[in-house]
Design brief:
By secondary structure, this protein is α/β, with parallel strands linked by helices. It has one domain: Rossmann fold (3-Layer(aba) Sandwich). About 40% of the residues lie in helices and about 25% in strands. The radius of gyration is 19 Å and the shape is globular. The protein starts with a helix and ends with a strand.
């Protein structure tokens, strides 16, 4: 590929991003943000089974037993909570989401589809008890609900937006009596290590399957060291099956942790 073609390619990709942002702006203004979230979540729910980018999550669902409790940490607008609950009505799903807009949509999805096996927790999770600041990123008047994150020195991107003070708890304190946790899905925008550090007792007691998004940084290193120290293996999905993670071979951000 010559230099001119490379420039054309990157110009195209850049304009695609601008176009998507512009469309989001128009829809959020026309519909109102709450209605936008609801319509968007319904759309994603419909298309997720055919989305190649979600094959890892769909594989995670297949690994779960039909009963017991599954934690959806960073449940956002409820799409993955929906699938965790609908894939097995006898399963109990506990969904954690602290951002008010996202939580309200999650509740709306639960009621719409009568997902009585979902329990909602309007709180952030970490390795402390108290309150924590969270950011709902806003750029060019567009709210990016899927990128909401804890205001933390280790997360430098998307730090301009709406600021919320949210309760934060350790899982070891919230669920200390629960001995039936079979799986954990966690996507908390680079705060995974702190959440799992606050759940050490729960993890050692239950040893659930964990499906986790980890950026390629110190948070990933710390998280892997924490979990492998408990006896977990670090796995990635390759060709439809799980295999041990090799840093020089695999470029994914999606990881499975199993005993």
């Amino acid at each position: 590929m010559n230099f001119r073609l490379i420039l054309i390619y990157f110009a195209f990709e850049f304009n695609q991003v601008l176009l998507k942002t512009f469309i989001k702006l128009i829809l959020q203004k026309l519909l109102g943000f709450r209605n936008y979230l609801y319509i968007f979540s319904r759309f994603i729910i419909l298309k997720l089974p055919r989305d190649k980018n979600e094959k890892d999550f769909l594989h995670f669902i297949k690994l779960l037993p039909p009963d017991g409790t599954v934690l959806d940490i960073g449940a956002n607008i409820g799409v993955m909570s929906y699938y965790l609950a609908r894939s097995s009505p006898s399963r109990n799903v506990i969904a954690f989401e602290p951002i008010p807009y996202n939580y309200d949509n999650l509740l709306r999805i639960k009621r719409k589809f009568r997902l009585d096996n979902i329990t909602l927790q309007k709180t952030a999770l970490g390795n402390e008890e108290g309150e924590i600041e969270m950011i709902l990123p806003v750029e060019h008047s567009v709210r990016f609900h899927g990128l909401a994150h804890v205001k933390d020195k280790d997360t430098q991107d998307k730090n301009k937006g709406e600021l919320y003070r949210c309760p934060v708890h350790k899982l070891d304190n919230l669920l200390q009596d629960n001995k039936d946790i079979k799986g954990i899905k966690i996507d908390v925008e680079n705060f995974e290590f702190h959440v799992l550090k606050g759940a050490e007792q729960l993890l050692r007691k239950n040893m659930p399957i964990i499906y986790c998004e980890l950026w390629d940084n110190e948070n990933r290193v710390n998280t892997m060291q924490l979990l492998t120290g408990m006896g977990y293996s670090v796995l990635v999905l390759e060709g439809g099956s799980l295999e041990p993670f090799e840093p020089d071979k695999h470029t994914t951000q999606n990881f499975f942790f199993k005993v």
